[in-house]
Design brief:
single chain, flat
Length: about 120
């Protein structure tokens, strides 16, 4: 039973479709939700800045997934070189996102709530 479920979920075609769809759907949903939140809280600028930041995660995760697969297909799963390349990429992206988050916290420190 577990094997059937895992085969269904981890089907390469389904994963590729999921990640390709997330490139377009996640940013769209983030902008829509950010617009709604901005309208309700009367702070559209802050809401759209954060929506853009969080909405870009769909494209980023998809890109990293495809890059990870390309590296693993080239070097092999048991390659230390592939592990080090992926580790460097993931650490670099994590540091870049952390820096971007800190910069955005200065630009749009908090979204004021409606009272």
């Amino acid at each position: 039973m577990l094997k059937v479920v895992l085969d269904f979920i981890l089907n390469e075609d389904r994963l590729n479709l999921f990640f390709a769809t997330s490139v377009w759907v996640v940013p769209f949903l983030a902008i829509v939700i950010g617009s709604i939140v901005g309208t309700v809280r009367r702070c559209m600028r802050h809401s759209l800045i954060w929506a853009g930041f969080w909405g870009s995660t769909g494209a980023l995760v998809s890109g990293m997934w495809f890059l990870y697969n390309r590296i693993m297909n080239h070097y092999g799963l048991d390659s230390v070189k592939a592990l080090m390349i992926n580790m460097g990429i993931f650490i670099g992206v994590g540091l870049a996102l952390g820096g971007a988050y800190m910069i955005l916290r200065r630009i749009a420190p908090s979204i004021p709530t409606r009272r």
